[in-house]
Amino acid sequence: MGTVHARSMDTLPMQGRDLGVHPDDLDVMEVQQETKQEILENKDVVVQHVNIEGLGRTKEDYLGYEISEVFNAKNLVDVMKKSHEARQRLLRLGIFKEVEVIIDISEGADALPNGLDVTFEVTELKRLTGSYNTMVGNNEGSMVLGIKLPNMFGRGEKLTFQFSYGTKETSYGLSFFKPQPGCFERNFTLNLYKVTGQFPWSSLKETDRGISTELNFPLWMTDHTLKWEGVWRELGCLARSASFAVREESGHTLKSALSHTMVIDTRNSAILPKKGALLRINQELAGYTGGDASFLKEDFELQLNKPFILGSVLSASLWGGMLFPIGGQPTSIADRFYLGGPTSVRGFGMYSIGPQSEGDYLGGEAYWAGGIHLYTPLPFRSSRGGLADLFRTHFFLNAGNLCNLNYGEGPRAHLQKLAECIRWSYGAGIVLKLGNIARLELNYCIPMGVQSGDRICDGVQFGAGIRFL
Amino acid sequence: MSLAAEAFVSQIAAAEPWPENATLYQPLKEDQILLSDCASSLAVQAYLRMCGLPVQVRCRANAEYMSPSGKVPFIHVGNQVISELGPIVQFTKAKGHSLSDGLDDVQRAEMKAYMELVNNMLLTAELYIQWCDDNTAAEWEIRRKMSAVGWAGKSLEQVYEDVSQCCQALSQRLGTQPYFFNKQPTELDALVFGHIFTILTTRLTNDELADRIKAYSNLLAFCRRIEQSYFDEQDKDGQSGSSRFSKGPSLI
Lengths: 469, 252
Hints:
Chain B: InterPro entries: Glutathione-S-Trfase_C_sf, Glutathione_S-Trfase, Metaxin_GST, Mito_Protein_Transport_Metaxin, Thioredoxin-like_fold, Thioredoxin-like_sf. Chain B: This is Metaxin-2 isoform X2. The complex is a heterodimer. By secondary structure, chain A is mainly β. Chain A folds into two domains: 2-124, membrane protein fhac (Ubiquitin-like (UB roll)), CATH 3.10.20; 182-465, Porin. Chain A contains five helices and 23 strands. In chain A, the strands form three sheets. Chain A has a 16-stranded antiparallel β-sheet. In chain A, strand 11 and strand 12 form a beta hairpin. Chain B is α+β, with helices and mostly antiparallel strands. Chain B has two domains: 3-95, Glutaredoxin; 105-232, Up-down Bundle (Glutathione S-transferase Yfyf (Class Pi), Chain A, domain 2). Helices cover 56% and strands 6% of the residues of chain B. A four-stranded mixed β-sheet of chain B has the order 2-1-3-4, covered by helices on one side. In chain B, strand 1 (23-26), helix 2 and strand 2 (56-59) form a beta-alpha-beta unit. In chain B, helix 1 (3-15) crosses helix 4 (85-94), helix 5 packs parallel to helix 8 and helix 7 packs parallel to helix 9. Chain B is globular, with a radius of gyration of 18 Å. The model of chain B is unreliable at 236-248 (pLDDT under 50).
């Protein structure tokens, strides 16, 4: 955390003592400082200059918007608060390693008696950085090498190259990111990638080579993303014993799709939130901008969290989606939805629910899945903080269904079809939070409502991933 | 196919009789089918008809990707998928249908030798002619592909000459017999029919190859005979129908 330094002002009746104030402690200042604080708060100040020092390749005009608010501060505490906020805004641009704030009285010919100068001392990130990580995705591990060029042209542009070698997947990608000066939340990304995936539950392997452009922007309380993606997909059988239904899908296809996503996220954390809600609605339209695949795909995700008794959290989630083929073409196995597994309906094998042929799961055109969870802190924790805080015990009830719909029938018939043969499961386990991105789970599951063809994972099931039901 | 794979296929194959819904998959007809693919597909169809095994023909754009070996045609029988004539012959043999059972060892070796000749000569010639006929392939591309199959340095004239010689060898072996091994057709007959018939009936910009083959009248008669016996007999009302031939025109 940075520190804010404030020099004493001569016109105040103080004994020349330096005040070292931490912005976080503004609310918990000691009582003896109260009189001084009162005087400070009542004291009118004018911010005369706001400087940024330490700029190398960053263009000054890019940063003007982030620091402009500081000029509006009316008293010292306000100056400190607004400086702190400006510091946060500068850090979120992703172009500085560290930002320090220095507040000083104005000096120079045009200095006012109550004038202040605020200086941000920044340390820019290096032009080129490399990184090596290991990553845990949805039940697979991989080694990731990255090269990053932050702030390439001085206005926050970022170029990233990533190479990932995993237990199931090898991929590489090039990404260019450009935020709008003055509004970092409005930004544009261009991606080029090649991704290979293996899906043993379908005996399928898929290689995607694609290009995508994405525009993010906030609108009132929501975040929107507009994206166009062009992908050359190559599907093949993973084993000679693949079913004929999967064999029929082999070959090359081209998908050109426009998609839109809307997200409202009021949770306090992405992993194991204590309160808040998430709503995410996504639609994708393929075929009107070229390519072979032609469909309209809708899916949504809803999550509600509420603190319960004794530090526990009650969480409910609902997922659903539908895929409508357009133009009478059948849907591709690569576009359909899948259900089941440690990150989805627990107690079932990975993506092993629903339509299948000779043991290969083909996915479905419509699905829904829901879960109710109770997360409690570990019992018998000795102290607050520490490793025990990352764990939770977890009681859950999951349910879901996946099927193909005959779109000639009405919605009533569809709802009926999705409501019959529901798979569900319940159980308990332990959850471990990994950073702010991923979580590990070890659960004891009891699957119910199992239909013929589903593969279950009765008993202990381990899961690792980013997105869980 | 490796020995282990052969044994595996034989084991599985022997278990069930030939089903009604056996299907043969080949690439789409229009411009997409290569000369060599068409010939291979016709050879397999002829062989299955000679064995009396019913099969439906389906055309798929992604047939070569669906095939387990990447080559067309392939057949889907029960829940087995087998591609190319060689493995298909093995497969049908395991089910108890064989055309070459009556041959002794010497004849069988001879049959294999001639099949190799056809595969090496006619198949490669078809590829070459297809590439040249495309007019889109550049001279250097063709030369590169030809050296990949060991035919570097051959000109079009030389290719025609090679085909002629191959046909001469076949013609001599056939002589005046109805089939290569006298009365009964074998897989060699199916293979030769597939290739010769395709070359004769495909419309190319240059008809010289067809003309050269027509010089061997007994081969022509042989093709007509097989066409009449195995491809027309079930279709007394007319020519069309997707479950018949892939290419329209006939020799008659």
